[in-house]
Design a protein that fits this description.
Radius of gyration: 13 Å
Strand content: under 5%
Number of helices: 4
Oligomer: single chain
Largest sheet: none
Helix content: 40-55%
Length: 106
């Protein structure tokens, strides 16, 4: 797993989406956002479901293998701690998107 913080990973994901899906934040319902759910995560809300989003990110990426962990779209944790990390990831995405939206309204 990457040593980047969750906030750094979310910022990388936001930068990727900004480059490839301008205006993507309008697709996000913060009340429904849940990074542990394929239909309510960021990729799920932008692309319809996590799997479709992952395929699209793989296609758009210049990296040989698109990393959902490094971009804050997944935790990479498959044990009992995954729920807690997904909660932290969801909180980080909510905070970052809210800050972005607040900045756009100023």
């Amino acid at each position: 797993m990457t040593t980047s913080t969750i906030d750094q990973r979310v910022q990388a994901g936001m930068a990727f989406l900004d480059q490839h899906e301008p205006g993507w934040t309008a697709s996000i319902d913060l009340d429904q956002l849940d990074m542990s759910r394929c239909d309510r995560c960021v990729l799920g809300q932008v692309y319809g479901d996590y799997g479709t989003g992952l395929t699209e990110c793989d296609r758009l990426s210049v990296e040989p293998y698109f990393s959902t962990i490094a971009h804050g779209f997944s935790t990479g944790v498959d044990d009992d701690d995954s729920l807690y990390e997904y909660e932290d990831l969801t909180t980080a995405w909510r905070t970052a998107i809210s800050a972005r939206r607040d900045g756009e309204q100023s």
